[in-house]
């Protein structure tokens, strides 16, 4: 099946046409202020490059930083009311409590706490109170707010109460967008609730963005279904993405890592994605980015959900080099590289200039950097090596040498050999690895649950079955599902040998 | 230091994470709650345990239960005030001051919350001096004082008082049973007079935690090496610096037991760091380096923060530090209760620190 992947980055919008596992065509175009125009231009360039075959693609997968940027920039967000099922517990730290003031001001509408939630062993803290919930739903309807986030104590364990609350709000407030914390986040009430609140605040933007993306596809003469890439390296149907924009937050590094896996044929490796300003280092396990285990801050808000574990280093093709004393970055000329770098006739010394001087890559005019002293080149080489070796070591999950896949526009900055690395793989299409990764279009399902009084194997089996069901519901072909990740953590001070089990499965998109 | 004010909460939490010896991490939610309560109620006076009158009535409070449950239920001062009220009703008198039962991690902050809520001063002391996994490791029980009567509160109207218990291990057994039914999280309160506290409490532990936390936060802000800074301010030994090479965890009797292997940066022999909720023993090959009751701590040298056993991860860059045990933990009775044999090891206390006379 032909699939098109598009990755919208800060500087470039890349597009790739994938035929099975091979890259049929790839293009790089500038990102525009109006993201959709850029996507349309990228699709047009891809169709021109690939010819008529591109028109038979049935899936267009877009990776975008649009949603996370909205949170970081505090723009284009809608107001949200919070409903928390918890009383008589968990009321001292109410919803939005630890948000940065400016963001809270922008997003918070009303906050409601009502009886409910569960104990760690699954008992109810308090029974669901229909009358109170109906009163709250009436007040939500009166306020005219467009989105609601519902959370409940231990809802990652049992979410019946969250679902009952959704039914009632749905009934009293037709057309309102409702996010359940249990469907997005992990154990950790405040952080899971934050994920739900952020998700709800992106509702209007998600709806507009998805509509604009669909227009861009049909406007390009394509008859293809829209998918968005998500944080774990798989994709969601457009309607699912519209409901869960937070799951698109970290699509950039994730897409590059997935693309690196395909382009190199290597599914367990470190990926170094060198951009203009920074390098992202991540670990591929079974072909997917390893997830971060702990709290990840997004725009100053603490969150706990599916996010890739990525280490960001201040090393990019545009990193400025200062001499006397030698210093690498951390600032960069970014997209102005092609005007400001020495090899392009500019007067700023950049990492790219040193790579050209050392003969690592032939771009611009090498004569313009012929005067750089050997000593400087050696200092640059050793500084880059130290940074990368240290970063790579930190991201490993077990001892021993491991392959590194170099991708991104600045991949040439990687040395051929590094300590702790079995080989550095430079691959074809490395500069559009992100778009290739998007086009891979796999579908996943995840479960994160606490099991009490259940044997380890049975707990993992039950979690796996449910993760498979979720993946199939999301559009995966059940025949192709594979388990990507199993984590199993025994819990202290809990009766019955309680353990927390997290399982993730992924498979091919079911034929459209 | 005479108060715990809003500015001292973060240092207190950070120092308490060190004193938790791997049993916990920075108590984010509790510090957040306390900063809101202190903003409303003002700073909490901190009084020296040596300066309190014989007949002063002090309530000691703590959270008992599973850290995971705290992440969902979130801390609420009302539960601990409720425990205090139950105890007060049982004893037939109120209290003049609040003290911590355990200075480790979030349990350092809960007494501050209760003191602020009740408008009482906080005694600069606790009964453990650090974190240990069991209540019967409290210095009160080691030295023959009692933690009963003890009150246990949940978030509802449920109230349990343990008027008396046969011995320390029975306190532990009864408390665990009630806590499980409460949803693996209980507010605990027990009382003592000023005279008992002067004799049996571990003193100055709040000041110690704040001082440790201030050094850590200052070092972080100045991008200086946190371990170096700590060791230039207080006695202690860096046992090893390197990377985590293996982590093995298993559940035994409700506790998470396991060990981490740390490969030193200098290429020398690896260190085994064992834990039972808290770090207990550090050894190289078959040579002991430091054992409980020495305070064993592990710092993430990239972030400059103490890390708990639950957050240990392959390839972390870490430093293992041993701080000397408090003198109270070195008596024969204390060594029997909190030394290596109390944790099931077949060897005696081993320490890199000079003997304290």
Keywords:
heterodimer; A: 512 residues; alpha/beta; Nucleotidyltransferase, domain 5; Rossmann fold; 4 domains; 6-stranded mixed β-sheet; 14 helices; 23 strands; 33% helix; globular; B: 357 residues; alpha+beta; CV3147-like fold; CV3147-like; 2 domains; 8-stranded antiparallel β-sheet; 5-stranded mixed β-sheet; 18 strands
- In CATH, the architecture of the largest domain in chain B is 3-Layer(aba) Sandwich
- CATH top level label of the largest domain in chain B: Alpha Beta
- Coarse structural class of chain B: alpha+beta
Number of strands of chain A: 23
Overall pLDDT of chain A, averaged? 92
Question: How are the SSEs ordered, and which strands pair?
Answer:
The complex is a heterodimer of chains A (512) and B (357).
Chain A: E1 2-8, E2 12-19, E3 22-30, H1 35-50, E4 59-64, H2 66-73, E5 80-87, H3 101-107, E6 108-115, H4 130-143, E7 147-152, H5 160-172, E8 177-180, H6 189-201, H7 203-219, E9 225-229, E10 235-237, H8 238-243, H9 251-264, E11 269-274, E12 279-285, E13 288-289, E14 296-298, E15 301-303, E16 310-313, E17 319-322, E18 327-332, H10 337-340, H11 351-357, H12 374-395, E19 402-407, E20 421-426, H13 433-440, E21 442-451, H14 456-473, E22 482-490, E23 499-508
Parallel strand pairs in A: 1-4, 4-9, 5-6, 5-7, 7-8, 11-19, 19-20
Antiparallel strand pairs in A: 1-2, 2-3, 9-10, 11-12, 12-13, 12-16, 14-15, 17-18, 21-23, 22-23
Helix pairs in contact in A: 1-7, 4-5, 9-13
Chain B: E1 3-4, H1 6-19, H2 28-41, E2 44-47, E3 57-65, H3 67-73, H4 77-91, E4 97-100, H5 106-118, E5 122-123, E6 125-126, H6 139-142, E7 150-153, E8 159-162, H7 168-181, E9 185-193, H8 194-200, E10 202-203, H9 205-221, H10 226-233, E11 237-252, E12 255-264, E13 271-276, E14 278-284, E15 287-291, E16 295-300, E17 305-306, E18 317-323, H11 332-338
């Amino acid at each position: 099946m032909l699939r098109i992947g598009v990755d919208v980055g800060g500087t470039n919008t890349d597009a790739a046409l994938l035929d099975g596992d091979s890259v049929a065509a790839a293009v790089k175009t500038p990102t525009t202020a109006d993201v959709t125009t850029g996507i349309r231009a990228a699709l047009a360039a891809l169709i021109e490059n690939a010819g008529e075959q591109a028109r038979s693609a049935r899936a267009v997968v877009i990776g975008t930083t649009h949603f996370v940027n909205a949170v970081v920039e505090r723009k284009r967000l809608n107001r949200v009311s919070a409903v928390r099922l918890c009383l008589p517990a968990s009321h001292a730290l109410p919803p939005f409590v630890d948000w940065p003031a400016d963001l809270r001001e922008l997003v918070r509408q009303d906050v409601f706490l009502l009886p409910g939630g569960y104990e760690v062993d699954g008992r109810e803290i308090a029974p669901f109170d229909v009358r109170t919930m109906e009163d709250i739903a009436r007040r939500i309807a009166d306020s005219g707010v467009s989105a609601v986030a519902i959370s409940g104590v231990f809802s990652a364990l049992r979410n019946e109460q969250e679902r009952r609350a959704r039914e009632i709000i749905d009934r009293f407030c037709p057309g309102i967008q409702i996010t359940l914390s249990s469907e997005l986040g992990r154990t950790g009430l405040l952080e899971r609730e934050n994920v739900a609140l952020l998700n709800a605040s992106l509702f209007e933007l998600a709806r507009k963005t998805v509509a604009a993306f669909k227009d861009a596809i049909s406007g390009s003469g394509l008859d293809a279904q829209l998918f968005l890439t998500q944080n774990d390296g798989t994709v969601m149907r457009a309607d699912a993405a519209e409901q869960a924009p937070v799951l698109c937050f970290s699509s950039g590094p994730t897409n590059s890592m997935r693309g690196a896996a395909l382009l190199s044929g290597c599914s367990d490796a470190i990926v170094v994605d060198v951009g203009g300003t920074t390098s992202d280092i991540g670990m591929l396990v079974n072909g997917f980015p390893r997830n971060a285990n702990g709290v990840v801050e997004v725009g100053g808000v603490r969150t706990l959900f599916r996010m890739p574990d990525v280490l960001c280093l201040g090393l990019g093709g545009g990193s400025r080099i200062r001499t006397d004393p030698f210093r690498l970055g951390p600032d960069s000329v970014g997209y102005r590289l092609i005007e400001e770098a020495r090899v392009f006739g500019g007067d700023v010394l950049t990492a790219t200039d040193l790579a050209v001087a050392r003969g690592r890559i032939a771009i611009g005019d090498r004569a313009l950097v012929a005067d750089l002293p050997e000593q400087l080149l050696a200092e640059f080489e050793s500084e880059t090596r130290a940074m990368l070796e240290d970063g790579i070591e930190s991201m490993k999950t077990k001892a021993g040498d491991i392959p590194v896949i170099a991708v991104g526009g600045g991949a040439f900055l990687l040395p051929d050999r590094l300590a702790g690395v079995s080989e550095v793989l430079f691959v074809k299409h490395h500069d559009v690895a992100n778009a290739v990764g998007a086009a891979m279009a796999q579908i996943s399902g995840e479960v994160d649950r606490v099991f009490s009084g259940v044997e380890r194997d049975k707990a993992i089996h039950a979690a796996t079955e449910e993760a498979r069901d979720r993946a199939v519901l999301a559009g995966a072909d059940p025949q192709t599902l594979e388990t990507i990740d199993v984590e199993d953590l025994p819990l202290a001070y809990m009766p019955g040998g309680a353990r927390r089990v997290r399982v993730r499965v992924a498979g091919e998109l079911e034929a459209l | 230091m005479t108060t715990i004010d809003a500015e001292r909460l973060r240092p207190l939490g950070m120092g308490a994470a060190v004193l938790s010896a791997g049993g916990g991490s920075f108590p984010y939610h509790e510090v957040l709650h306390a900063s809101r309560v202190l903003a409303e109620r003002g700073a909490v006076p901190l009084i020296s345990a040596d300066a309190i009158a014989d007949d002063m009535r002090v309530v000691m409070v703590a959270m008992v239960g599973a850290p995971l449950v705290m992440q969902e239920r979130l801390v609420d001062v009302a539960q601990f005030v409720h425990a205090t009220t139950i105890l007060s009703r049982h004893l037939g008198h109120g209290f003049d001051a609040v003290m911590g039962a355990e200075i480790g991690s979030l349990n350092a902050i809960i007494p501050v919350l209760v003191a602020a809520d009740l408008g009482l001063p906080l005694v600069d002391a606790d009964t453990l001096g650090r974190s240990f996994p069991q209540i019967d490791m409290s210095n009160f029980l080691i030295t023959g004082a009692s933690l009963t009567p003890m009150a246990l509160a949940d978030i509802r109207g449920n109230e349990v008082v343990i008027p008396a218990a046969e011995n320390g291990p029975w306190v532990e057994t009864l408390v665990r049973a009630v806590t499980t039914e409460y949803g693996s999280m209980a507010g605990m309160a027990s009382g003592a007079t000023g005279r008992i506290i002067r004799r049996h409490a571990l003193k100055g532990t709040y000041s110690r935690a704040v001082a440790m936390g201030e050094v850590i936060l200052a070092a972080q802000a100045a991008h200086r090496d946190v371990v170096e800074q700590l060791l230039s301010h207080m006695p202690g030994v860096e046992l090893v610096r390197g990377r985590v090479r293996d982590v093995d965890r298993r559940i035994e009797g409700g506790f998470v037991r396991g060990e981490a292997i740390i490969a030193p940066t200098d290429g020398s022999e690896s260190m085994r760091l064992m834990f039972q909720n808290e770090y207990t023993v550090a050894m190289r090959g078959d040579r002991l380096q430091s054992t409980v009751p020495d305070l064993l701590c592990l710092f993430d040298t990239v972030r400059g923060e103490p890390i708990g056993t639950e957050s240990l991860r392959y390839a972390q860059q870490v430093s293992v530090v041993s701080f000397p045990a408090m003198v109270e933990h070195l008596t024969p009775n204390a060594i029997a209760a909190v030394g290596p044999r109390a944790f099931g090891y077949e060897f005696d206390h081993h320490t890199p620190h000079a003997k304290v006379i």
